[in-house]
Each structure stands twice: as structure tokens, then as C-alpha cells.
Amino acid sequence: MRDARMPIGRRERAKQHKRERIMAAARELFAKRGVGGVTTQEVADRADVAIGTLYLYATTKAELLIMVQNQKFAAAIDTGLAAAAVTAERGPLEGVIALIRPVVACVREQVENGRTYLHELVFGDPSEPYRREGLALSARLEDGIARLLSRDERIDAGDAATLARVITAIIHISTTATVYLHRSDDAVLSDIREQVQATLSLHGNPA
Predict the structure, then answer these.
(1) Is the predicted pLDDT of residue 58 greater than 80, yes or no?
(2) What does the pLDDT look like over 121-142, one tens digit per residue?
(3) Which of 41, 57, 73 is the last residue of a domain?
(4) DSSP letter assigned to residue 203
(5) Domain span including residue 21
(6) Predicted structure pTM score
(7) What is the Cα Rg of the chain in Å?
(8) Which residues contact 194 (CB under 8 A, 6 or more apart)?
């Protein structure tokens, strides 16, 4: 029985190794030239795999980008949640800003990649595995915002969920709209802060 399992284990390790090479190649090329300046053939060449092999892991360049960005997005959310945990006592606004600060930096690290990533999550096929993973990360971010808002006794769970949805929409627009492209991360975050503060104030919860 053990011998029967061994080839499967080796195949799985080989597949994982190829996936890691493809991810590393895509991450490096997208960071340098943006998703629009890279072809799938270039990623395959950099990863030292055949183009047909690459398509076993991602059938389009958009899927490659989502693979890469999902990792970055997940790490940014983890960092934000940790930061929010130590600032939430300063009020819902500060907790939310601490949470979204690394998310904003992640999306804007390479602006074309970030815009394309969010666009693909919103308008792409939600049943595609990588998009499904990205949408789950977006839901995790929204849930994290809602939980921070719920710490304020003036905000019930239902309102917190609604406000979190509004705030994630603010983040999406502020990090992808053309008018904001040439602003610094700090300027974008400051604008988001003002919008979130106004949203909370309109709800009757001054931050």
C-alpha cells in the first residue's frame, strides 16, 4: 500500500513545485511591467515550463494575475487585522483605517495590477476557483470591518454589515478610479478616512 502511494506523492510534489515556479515568474514579471506588458508565454519561459503546462494551472493571464494578487491580498488582510486589534479601542474609525491601510497599499503597489485584479473579481466568472478565492478574501475583509464596527454599542450587527459593504465600495472606488491614480497612498487613505468618517456620522455614530 505504501509503495502505491509513493508515485502519487512525487507527482503532487512536482505539481506543487511547478506551480510555485509559475507563481514566482508571474509575480516578478507583473511587478516589473504590469499585467498589460506581460504575455503568458513570457511567464512560461521564465518559469521554465511549457505553455501547455502553464495552462494546466491558469488558463488565462487574468487567472495568473488573480493567483498572484490573492496571495498579496490575503497577507495584507492578515496584517490589517493584526493592526486593527491593537487600535480598535480608539474607536471604529481608527480600527477600520488600521485594517484597510495595508489593503490600500497592496492594491496600489502596482496600480495596473491592482485595478485589473479588482475588476476581474467584480466582473469575472465567480465560479472560477481563483476568483472564488479572491471573492472569499473580499468577504473576509468586509467581515473584519463589520466586526470592528460592531464593537461600538451604537451599531448593531445588521447596520455593521451594511456599513462594511459601503466602506468596501469606498475602498474599491478610491483605489481604482482614474482620478485617484496619481495620488499617493497617504492621500488616498486620507480621502477614504474622510468618506468613512462621513458615513459613520450620517449613521449617527461620530468616529
Answers:
(1) yes
(2) 999 999 999 999 999 999 999 9
(3) 57
(4) T
(5) 1-57
(6) 0.88
(7) 20
(8) none
**Does 50 share its domain with 66?**
no
What single DSSP character describes residue 110? T
- Split into its structural domains, the chain has a count of 2
Q: Are 199 and 173 in contact (CB under 8 A)?
A: no
Count the neighbouring beta carbons within 10 Å of the beta carbon of residue 85. 13
> What is the Cα–Cα distance from 179 to 150, expressed in whole angstroms?
32
Long-range contacts of 24-30 (CB under 8 A, 24+ apart): 26/64, 26/65, 26/67, 26/68, 27/68, 30/64, 30/65, 30/68, 30/110, 30/113
pLDDT at residue number 204: 65
Q: Are 105 and 140 part of one and the same domain?
A: yes
Is residue 198 within 8 Å of 167, Cβ to Cβ? Answer: no
pLDDT band at 207 (very low <50, low <70, confident <90, very high): low
| 8 — pLDDT class (breaks 50, 70, 90) | low
pLDDT for position 6 = 47
Amino acid code (one letter) for 155: I
